């Protein structure tokens, strides 16, 4: 992967780079005068190269403006730090600046990890679809077939869980979290069981309509564990991260290296800051650091609905793989399923695939997954026609990632 600019964006730019390596690309004037037939070809070559250089300069200028814009956002205290990556089959652009730790004035880098919360659901969907491709699970199997203790009946299928049409409730998950130092004694199964006991009723008939549910993806993670014989986290490490050569400190479900993990924050006097005592346990609340409220290191109780830790660079590698003709993560059928729009029982479309939401802006369709919680906010997008993927992660839990991505992505979609 290369920084800031992909040399294979177009045939014209490729020609320019080739020309850049060959000093005397144009024939001498004397040679042209001797051979008049060379003149039109020389003019064409000159125009192509000039056009190529103009396009290159325009692209570089636009990328420079993006960097200036993001630096201004950081300087104006909109974010402590920003990671933003754009990929195709190679890297197009990367930005990693700001503070990963405000009190220690630590600069963020491309391998600094952050919580990505619900963006994890895309990884959970990939894991399930891998098992589907292997014939170990089937989309229309009842979830209760794999997890008998589920209280929701046989109509809740794997397809309904993936497409968020299961009818399972979605209580606010802000308290489904534990401190980093509590992780060694944390019991995920017990935590899930208490949630299922508290919310045992479906809100509507499975397949009737779309409604988001974190519990749905928590259950999918348990199915991955049951079928594979591994914990959900170890399954993902082996079948997603390792396939892409992502190291344990680059993508994980626990913080392997504190020096390479960003601190999460809320802006002082933001709505979330003012209401923090009503939303989260006080043990998660740290001190104020130069206008930012520190949120202590924590893990989600359900790793499959929001527990992944990683960088925009690492998640960009995942999107890059999915954009390639031959993915290391999914076969042709699995990729087709991941991007296939789903329907409800009335055969009307829902704005979901088997794992991703479907969005549209300026007549450009994209697949996306957003993640937000106390301390961080993230979003990923894949633009299928443009064959571009984008990832944004910030350590400001009150940030509007969607709005920022709309501004940034437009530059690369022209």
UniProtKB/TrEMBL annotation:
Gene3D superfamilies: DD-peptidase/beta-lactamase superfamily. Residues 69-401 form the Beta-lactamase-related domain. Pfam families: Beta-lactamase. It comes from the Bacteria. This is Beta-lactamase.
